[in-house]
Amino acid sequence: METNIDTVATSISDRPSILYVDDEPYNLVSFKSTFRHYYDVFTAINAKEALEILRNHPTIEVIITDQRMPEITGVAFLKTIIHEFSGAVRMILTGYSDIKVVIEAINECKIFHYLTKPWVEAELKQIIDNGILVARLEKHINSLVTQLQDELANKEAVIKTFQKYVPPDVVTRMLSPTENKQLFEGEILVISVLFVDIRDFVKLSSPLTPKQTVGFLNNYFTLMSECVVNRSGTVDKFIGDGLLALFGAPVPSANNPENAVLCALDMLNALKKFNSEYCKQLRIETTIGIGINTGSVVVGNIGSEQYIEYTAIGNTVNLASRIEGLSKTWPNSILISESTYDKVKNFIKAEKLAAQEIKGKENKMDVYKVLGVK
Question: Phi and psi dihedrals of 87, rounded to 5?
């Protein structure tokens, strides 16, 4: 949004509209005959007539009035219209020089200029042209302010939406000019990855209409997302009825494994509340499986020119998904990798399972089932 004063001023050839108010008919005729070549000139013999003209012609940019008029003074007239026609530049042109009137006009009417008669055409035209430029600049500035306010409101709405999935400190860092570039160029981080998935979702949702299914998923994801954000995680994406969360990206943290496991436990507790609302409708409890893995990933903006998203990629993510798949054997269970267990074993109770075969892995790997906090 650039403001070019030359563009705003556009050779006052846009045929500006001005209004001149004076109780002397001769003065009105003289003024109009002199300046009609430059402007669209409206004249009024009193304040009532002037107000009617202003309301019928809202594009008037300059209002010039005589001070001493029988029904109402020029200053009093300008006071009455200052709010309704605040965009017009106001001037007083009078045959009397009264310093008190000048001060009052400046303080209460915010007049652009106070002139005494008789006027000189070239001088008065220059003053009117300057007034028109001021009026147009103010209009342009007000337009820019409105644009900025709209843009700020839109950005605030986006940020508020973003904060539903990302902790506030993450949003703050991502909006920081000094850190934003690094965040979105791609970097290697050690994080904990959490996958959570609903078991037998197709069978579970079969009694629901499409609208009810969407409502079911929205309520479920709201609870699960709150668990993620409350433990300083980031909701990376929803995959069907599954959710992928990252702990340690985009903002690194030393407590990633602990936060991920505590989040998983929170999810199981949240599921109890969810089931209390939906069990009667579905006639069956919703069950989930959770898998957590910790390791190095590449994080950054991934995608095309048309679509892009911030995400994590690498074997750590794939392995977390595989571990979540193993949880089908144990409904409502939390399974974690050995790399995660080593970081949280001092504060959780866990059961070491028999070495598990993992798709894509040659050797079986140790997996632990979380039982709770010590």
Answer: -80, -15
- Given a contact cutoff of 8 angstroms between Cβ atoms, the answer to whether 6 and 136 are in contact is no
d(CA 110, CA 87): 12
Which residue bears the tokens 């070491």?
Answer: 352
pLDDT given at position 302: 76
CB 32 within 8 A of CB 41: yes
Closest CA to 235 of 171, 316, 308: 171
- Closest C-alpha to 19, from 47, 10, 263: 47
At 333, which amino acid appears? S
Beta-sheet strands, E only, within the chain = 17-21, 40-44, 62-65, 89-94, 113-116, 187-198, 234-239, 242-247, 288-303, 308-313, 333-337, 348-352, 367-373
Fold held by 168-373 = Alpha-Beta Plaits (3.30.70)
DSSP label of 220: H
- Rounded Cα gap, residues 302 and 317, in angstroms: 15
CA distance 254 to 169: 15
Q: Which two tokens stand for residue 75?
A: 């200053």
Annotated domain spans of the chain: 5-146, 168-373
Q: Say what the pTM is.
A: 0.60
pLDDT tens figures, 278-305: 887 888 899 999 999 999 999 887 777 6
Structure tokens at 79: 């006071």
Which CATH class for the 5-146 domain?
A: alpha beta
Backbone angles phi, psi at 17, to 5 degrees: -105, 130
CA distance linking residue 367 with residue 349, whole number of Å: 13
Two tokens at 119? 């006027």
The predicted pLDDT at position 11 comes to 45
Question: Which residues are CB-neighbours of 80 under 8 A, at least 6 positions away?
Answer: 47, 51, 72
Q: Which residues pair with 187 in a beta bridge?
A: 299
Residue 208 DSSP symbol? S
Distance CA(254)–CA(191), nearest Å, equals: 9
